[in-house]
Amino acid sequence: MMKESETMKARMEVMVKLRPMLRGPEIIAIFIKHGCASYLQRLGLIKGKYKKNDSENTKSAALIAALEELGPTFVKLGQFLSTRGDELPASLINELKKLQKSVTPLAFSAMKPIIDANLGGHSERYFSSIEEVPLGAASIGQVHAAVLKSGEAVALKVRRPNIEKQVKHDIETLQELAKLAERNSHYAREVQVVLLVREFSRSLLTELNFKQEAQAMRTMQDNNHHPKLYIPDVAIKLATADLLIQERIMGEDLNKETLSRLTEDEKEELSTTICEALTMQLFEHGLFHADPHPGNFKLLENNVLAMLDFGNVGQLSESLNELLIDLIIAASNRDATSFTVAMLRLDTTNKINRRAFEKDIDRMMARYLQSDMSNINYGQLIQDILLIARSYTIEIPFEFLQIGQAILKLQDTLLILTPNLSMSVILRKTLPIVVKEQLNVTKMGNKVKSNAHLLYQAARQLPVTINEVLHQLKDGKPVVKMEMNMDDKLLQRIEKLTYMLIFGVGLLAFSILTAGLFVGFSSASGSAAFNNLTFRIMAITALTIVLFFMLLLVWLIRRIRKK
Q: Which residue, 419, 439, 459, sits at the end of a domain?
């Protein structure tokens, strides 16, 4: 009776605050039923006294039971939070990792209409057989083995009926609850619950679309040149949001039985393959597998690994790729200043206390500096960085969070493959790939070419700016105006330095401009649009600019000597 009255009280409280069509009251009631009211109270979603689970283990188990009862979206939420050690205590993280990744499969009669509808109503035209018992079932979909008319073995990944509608409804509810939590709770604001839900929503909605997964799979297949990594083929033309048809992989799971048959050298080779492949995906192409846990690999002949399940894939822009490389190089050199400079490129407010931020980064690095490289927990290192960033309200790009999650899962996979070999030893082999990308001449040339138009626009404005500067110099006016009480001698020295600074900056700008124009346009010298006349004009223009600045230097020196 008491439990029912508590549930009713919670329902009424939340109904007042949430739109009636949302699922908020039901979510609150299920959490309370499982004795998880303390989580909701901390988030400011409910008030009052409710039944509590005293021990941490009981509390964590109750939370898992509540998430599983709430359905696929909340199971996915728990799995998402299990990679966010910067947000939750370690005891809870460990429990969330136990969340079921497999669920009770739906009957084939519920899945067959979806297969037919996405293949023009007649799946029999494509398949000679489809196995009704699925190979596996997850919260979003399930996989059925099939054989094409051509005799090729394939796997059909079929989305569960109405799952998209249910997930979007749940996400909308979570977004409303997150807003309510941040209004009511300092803790919710501190952990940025709204941002957390936004990141989770983006990840889950991408995973829902099997057509996007097929496109990512094909792109990564085209990009893959690692001799020991295999990416299955996919029927890209037949892919839809509900259906994905891919080559069926008959390899072995990375379990204890399989690994017991391998030598230490073979297991080390597998670890190296995974690290090298992910590093190449990340830094050479910017498109990477963000879920490299052991279940997403199959062992083939000759110690080749097949990579599976491309629902969780990350993509880095060129600017984020450059930033990541800078962060990695700074971290590997344990250079807190360079790391801080790179991190502050993410700060859009310009209100961060740089000195305090750098001091916190330096302290963090010092903790790891005292450890042997072989004992560093890279997953914990990433969580520490996220904690510091969050404490200064730096909004970490979603792609960086994906990388953090990928490294945590990679660490777990490497621990299974080579428990006696540190992750740092394996990663050290892949560091040259990062350095190679930092010194990539082609990319540097492309940047110069892409900035050529901006340089040209700047060059067009420079004559006007130079004319204004010369007029001010002619009238005896210093370009930099200061109102300070200083003696005449000091003012003369500052004015001389100002003139020289103007000249130096101008000459440097034109040197960069000239070099950029030569590099950018010379790379196009083979095209019809670029001819000898154009090149001569550019050369004469550059030389004229340099000559102008040389004359300006002579004039400045003579003026300074007169004073």
A: 439
Query: Could you tell me if 399 and 320 lie in one domain?
Result: yes
Q: How far apart are CA 377 and CA 356, in angstroms?
A: 25
Residues 6+ apart with CB under 8 A from 430: 275, 276, 279
Domain boundary among 390, 414, 439: 439
Q: Regarding beta strands 305-307 and 229-230, do their DSSP bridges make them parallel or antiparallel, or are they unpaired?
A: parallel
In a domain, 365, yes or no: yes
**Domain span at 70:** 2-100+170-203
Tokens of 213: 């997964």
Q: How far apart are the C-alpha atoms of 506 and 551, rounded to whole Å?
A: 13
Domain membership of residue 7 (yes or no) is yes
Indicate the Cα dihedral angle 382, 385, 387, 388, nearest 10°. Answer: 180
- In a shared domain, residues 68 and 179: yes
Looking at the structure, do residues 353 and 422 belong to the same domain, yes or no? yes
Q: What string of pLDDT tens digits covers the 563 residues of the chain?
A: 445 566 655 555 555 455 544 688 899 999 999 888 888 898 888 887 766 655 555 777 888 889 989 989 999 998 888 877 666 666 677 777 777 666 789 999 999 999 999 998 888 999 999 999 999 988 899 999 999 999 999 999 999 999 999 999 999 999 999 999 999 999 888 888 998 899 899 989 989 999 999 999 999 999 999 999 999 999 999 999 999 999 999 999 999 999 999 999 999 999 999 998 998 898 888 899 999 999 999 999 999 999 999 999 999 888 888 888 888 878 777 888 889 988 988 877 777 888 899 999 998 888 876 665 556 677 777 778 888 888 888 888 888 888 888 888 888 898 899 887 766 666 666 666 666 655 554 554 555 554 555 555 555 565 666 666 666 666 666 555 544 454 555 555 555 556 555 556 555 555 555 555 555 555 444 444 445 555 556 566 666 766 676 676 666 666 655 65
CATH of the domain at 112: 3.30.200.20
95 and 111 housed in the same domain: no
Q: Are residues 333 and 425 in the same domain?
A: yes
- What's the gap between Cα 116 and its chain centre? 36
pTM of the full structure = 0.71
Q: Give the single-character DSSP code of 305.
A: E
Residues 349 and 450 in one domain: no
Question: ∠ CA 196-197-198 to the nearest 5 degrees?
Answer: 90
Cα separations in angstroms, 522 against 113, 449, 546? 59, 10, 19
- Total number of domains constituting the chain: 4
Expressed in percent and rounded to 5, the helix, strand and coil fractions of the chain are: 65, 10, 30
| Core vs surface per residue 551-562: b (16+ CB within 10 A) or e | ebbeebeeeeee
Cβ contact 342:327 at 8 Å: yes
One domain for residues 325 and 417: yes
Q: Is residue 165 part of a domain?
A: no
State whether 190 and 217 are in the same domain. no
Residues paired with residue 129 on neighbouring β-strands, in sequence order: 147
Rounded to whole angstroms, the Cα distance separating 439 from 448 reads 14
Residue 78 lies inside a defined structural domain of this protein: yes
